[in-house]
Specification:
CATH class of the largest domain: Alpha Beta
Number of domains: 2
Strand order of the largest sheet: 4-15-14-13-12-11-7-6-5
CATH topology of the largest domain: TIM Barrel
Number of strands: 17
Low-confidence stretches: none
Distance between the termini: 57 Å
Shape: globular
Helix content: 40-55%
Length: about 375
Amino acid sequence: MALTYEILKKSGKSRLGKLYTKHGVVDTPAFMPVGTCGTVKAMMPESVAATGAQILLGNTYHLMLRPGSELVAKLGGLHKFMNWDKPILTDSGGFQVMSLTGLRKLTEDGVTFSSHIDGKKYFLSPEESMRIQYNLDSNITMALDECTPFPSTHEEAKVSMERSMRWAKRSKEAFIDRDGYGIFGIQQGNIYKDLREYSAEKLKEIGFDGYAIGGLAVGEGQEKMFEVLDYAPEQLPTDKPRYLMGVGRPDDIVGAVLRGVDMFDCVMPTRSGRTSQAFTKYGTVNIRNARHKEDPRPLEEGCTCPLCTHYSRAYIHHLQKCNEVLAVMLLTWHNVAYYQRLMQGLRQALAEDKLQEFTTQFYADQARGDIEEL
C-alpha cells in the first residue's frame, strides 16, 4: 500500500486530516520545515521534532550535488543519514535547476545544468530525479516539473505546463512503488485558470498519491495567489492531500488553509532566524531594533521555546549585535515553533468547529502588531 490519506473533518473548504507513511503519521494542515542539505539550518533534528514538526522537506538538487544520492543510500538513506526518523518529502530539483539562469539548457528529455558549486555538468530528467529521490529514501517523491516565472504569457505558460505534464507521466512511470511511500504530481499553469484545469485533469489521468500546486509564490503577490487558490485546490482530487509549494508567510498559510490546502513548506522561518526576524502572535519582530536593547520581557509571552522560556529580548538583541551564532539558533527554533503552533491551532480549531473564531482572532492579533511599550 502506498501513502494513505484520511480526511477527518471539513469546515467550508478547509480539511482536517492524517497522512500515513512508513515513517509515521502527519497531521494536516501541516507545515514542513525545509532541510535543504539534510539539515534544518541552525537546528538539530531533535530540536525540530521538539517544535512539533512531523515531516521535513529535503532538496534533491542540493543533495545530488553534495554529498551525492549514492552516498546517502550507502549510509542508509536520508532518515538515518540526518538522524530524522519521521517522514521526509523531497522536491524534484526542478525549481532550483530552472532558476539557474544562464547555467542550464532545457530540452524535452530534461535539463542539463552546471553546478553552482564547481561548474560540473549534470543532467536531470524525470527518470533521474526519481532515481535520486529513491536513493534518498523519500517518503514523498515529487514529480519533476518546470516552474514558469511570473509574469509569463498564456502561451509561455501553456508550453511549459504541457511539458511538465509529459514529465509527470514519465516521473510516475519511473517511480518505484512500495509500502508507505508515494509520489505527488504538480499542477502548473501560472495564473491562468484554464491551464490549471487542463493540468489538473492530466495529473488525475496519470494518478498520484497526492497533488501539489506549483508555480505560485514566485512574485505574483498574495492577492493574485489567493485568486488562483480560490479555484485551484478544488480542481484536484478531493480524497488526496494538497500541497502548496514554497508558501509562505503565516497569513499566506491561514488564507490557503481556508481555501482547501493541506500541506506547506517555506524557508521563511529559518531564513528569518538568520536575519534577526521573529514571527510572533502579534506579527513580525526585528530583534535588532534599538527598542529591544533594555527590554526584559520574552520575545512572546506564552511561547514555550527555549528563547522565550529562558532569555529576554535584551539578551537576544545583544547577541545579534555581537553576531553570535546562538542568536540564530534561538531565533530559528522560535520561528519553527511558531509555525508549528500555528498549524496546531488551525487543526484544533477545525476539530472543534471553531475555525472562523480562530482566523478572526489571528488576523486581529496580526493587525495589532508588536507595539506594546514597556
